[in-house]
Amino acid sequence: MNKDKNNQAVWDKLSKQYFNNFAGSDEIEPEAAENLYFAWPVMEKFIKENVKDMDGQRALDFGCGAGEVCEKLAAMGLATTGVDYSEGMIDAARKNVGDTVDLHLGDSKKVLEIAAKDGKFNVIVSVLVFPFIEEIESVMRDLQQSLNEGGLLCFAVFNEEWVRRALENNIDYEQPEDSQGISKLILNFRENRRVEIFHRSKKEYDNILEGLGFARLLEEYPLFPEEFISKVYPGMPADISEYIILGYKKT
Ligand SMILES: C[S@@+](CC[C@H](N)C(=O)[O-])C[C@H]1O[C@@H](n2cnc3c(N)ncnc32)[C@H](O)[C@@H]1O
Hints:
single chain; 251 residues; alpha/beta; Rossmann fold; seven-stranded mixed beta sheet; three-stranded antiparallel beta sheet; 24% strand; binds S-adenosylmethionine
């Protein structure tokens, strides 16, 4: 199985519970809720501050998983599309938000097709997807081409300081034998559900996106409450965010 197929198969498995907060609270694993509850408010504020009139504006959630962020975008009045390359995730999203969100199985090439057919997007969000993609430049190029001029790109990725500490403390991350540093790691979603992860700094994202004509407007590090950290990540400090949230405008 090639690397990408292996990652897809892990996402298919995880779609059953891990990233499906629509499942009963007794069914989801505790750390699964964090993307939505800690990353989303920062993104929502950024979109509200930068999009004057939501009605009729087109939003894409790239790597939409089970559809939680799609639901939030649609509730803001944005005409929302979700794209994910895991069949399991898209099936879960269809069940959860299929009535209000346009959902497609595929990767950034699918996004290009949708933009060519139905129109470019005004807002693209992506929550914890880019770190799982090795060929990030070509994906960013596809997203840039699918976004209107003046459009927003806002995404959450892992924060370098958190990743270093977690690796030191043997929490979630493993170092593959053939790599040093933190640019290529394995993220183990417990019970041996492993995906490859490609860590990049804010500077690396800035360089890629500035090269594609984006200007950065947002850099935020939302913190988890202490009780969440001690329950889900015992041993990790509460004053380091797991995420960095970056927001850019296409100029
Ligand atoms: C950590 S999950 C996050 C899901 C969702 N954004 C959330 O916050 O709950 C990563 C998602 O990215 C998707 N993904 C990873 N690489 C992708 C790619 N190249 N194209 C489309 N989806 C991708 C996976 O299938 C998975 O659903």
